[in-house]
Amino acid sequence: MAAEAGLSRSTFAKLSPHPYLLANLEPSSDSAAPTRSNGRAPFEVRKPTVNLSSLSHAHGSALVRTGDTTVICGIRGETILTEHIPNYRASNIQTELSDYDLLVPNIELATGSAPQFLPGGPPTTLAQTLSTRIYSLLHSSKLLRAEDLRIWHKRAADVPVPADEEEVMEESDGEKYVAAYWVLYIDIFFISFDGNPFDAAWAATVAALRDTKLPQARYDPDREMILCSRKDPRPLTVASIPIACTAVIFTGKETKDQAPDGKFWLLADPDTLEESLCNETVTIVVDCAGGSRRILSISKHGGTAMTAKLLGSKDFLDWASKRWEDFASAITGTRL
């Protein structure tokens, strides 16, 4: 049998990406459904898979894969004495996580994860932007409680209470106080990269935090240091599962000079090729735990096609809820 002539879908997409995507989203036949260059429907996403405790020497870890985007997150806790925190105030029990920088995310786009990431260079703008977004969402979502990171010590009877602590505790024998904190270093490493990095990085962060168990820790005043025990490690309290859902808007314009015709397509969970063809991105963070949908944040970058009305539309919010179910089920191992 003679071999089939012609080029594959992926080859056509690489040779002429914009016209090829537009032709698939706007087929000439009415009976053909709109599809993307990768064969997915506009709202179709890549199924996520999550593996917990992937790293042996971390306090918590998770590997998340969506299509050809694979990211691993490892969390390690280190202790810091309150006397070594320059701006420490015993009265501060509301904003400890941000004021004392107790959560430190870092993202690395590994050499070999994608052709554009070359060895020996400084951190890319994308890596720094993703780290900033992860840091901001960690605090705005209130995913963690400061209580889980406090290390308490019972003051000896003959030690006076410092003046800055008098406003929150009475001077009495054996009073407990915070001697130190756990600082969580959240390292996120991309093994392979094929678009939509923020959703995968955030899901790996949430999964790793749910997997994290910190050692029992106590303050030794004689040696002025924290001593830890591996016996009965304590898990973090992570009650919610906020999930980021990202889509890009494809307008059909190949150049900026081309006049818009009002048509656009919302492409959920974009790959690298689709991201390069679109200049408008929207990310919604939702938490549907308990059966109710809670919107934590909506962010949009570039373009004007995605209006406030469309952001609040039933189809868009239902897609976000379905995306939450897929990720939450993969993280917890149960169908929600």
UniProtKB/TrEMBL annotation:
GO terms for cellular component: cytoplasmic exosome (RNase complex); nuclear exosome (RNase complex); nucleolus. Residues 44-215, 241-307 form the Exoribonuclease phosphorolytic domain. It comes from the Eukaryota. GO terms for molecular function: mRNA 3'-UTR AU-rich region binding. Pfam families: RNase_PH, RNase_PH_C. GO terms for biological process: exonucleolytic trimming to generate mature 3'-end of 5.8S rRNA from tricistronic rRNA transcript (SSU-rRNA, 5.8S rRNA, LSU-rRNA); nuclear mRNA surveillance; nuclear polyadenylation-dependent rRNA catabolic process; rRNA catabolic process; TRAMP-dependent tRNA surveillance pathway; U1 snRNA 3'-end processing; U4 snRNA 3'-end processing; U5 snRNA 3'-end processing. InterPro entries: ExoRNase_PH_dom1, ExoRNase_PH_dom2, ExoRNase_PH_dom2_sf, Exosome_comp_Rrp42_subfam, PNPase/RNase_PH_dom_sf, Ribosomal_Su5_D2-typ_SF. Keywords: Cytoplasm, Exosome, Nucleus, RNA-binding, rRNA processing. SUPFAM superfamilies: Ribonuclease PH domain 2-like, Ribosomal protein S5 domain 2-like. It is found in: Cytoplasm; Nucleus, Nucleolus. Belongs to the RNase PH family. This is Ribosomal RNA-processing protein 43. It comes from Hypocrea jecorina (strain QM6a) (Trichoderma reesei).
